[in-house]
Protein: KANL3/Tex30 alpha/beta hydrolase-like domain-containing protein
Amino acid sequence: MPPKRRRADQSSPASTPPPPLRKPKRQPVVVFAHGAGAPSSSDWMVHWKKMVQDALDAVEVVTFDYPYMSGGKRRAPPKAEKLVDHHLGVVKDAASKYQGHPLILMGKSMGSRVSCMVASSDDIDVSAVVCLGYPLKGVNGAVRDETLLQLKVPTMFVQGSKDALCPLDRLESTRKKMTCKNELHVIDGGDHSFKIGKKYLESSGLNQHDVEMEAVKAILQFVQNSFTESCA
Structure:
């Protein structure tokens, strides 16, 4: 008896298409700006640069000093708006050097505020902004949210719960008004630089290193999601 023919909608194992190839990992370039009171060579900046470099597998984490920091003299910073041109120049150089790599802007405190200003420039294509300790409150206590409300780039905030420069309730109100995708990761008990007091660590059972690593993992997840959505 001759063998039965296969139905037209059935496929033999040999004709099954191979699984799709995995897309190559997209290594970002990160431009990381320092805060108002310490240069890019500070222990804090070097520490966070290393953590972010490792977690994101970045092709490079570019750090730099604003002009007022040059010469090793400690001077008061100018208004954030006056730092935009220099910052933008650094970003353009990095984007030109690493063409085809996603561009991430990250900053500490004042550097995060300037990063948000730079991200709104029409001259660059930014994939995401990461703000470490965003200084939402000005010297006079007023909420400085105008820059955030203009953003169109996915933005993440990493904030200490005890950061006097960014009360979480005020940040939450601002985030609800923002039109871009935005996320928040809170470091419980952390101050403006995410430092957690010894007593708080002991009472909560937390560990400074582990808490920071959790923040870095959250940044990685946010950045990966931003890449996925930009390619959708």
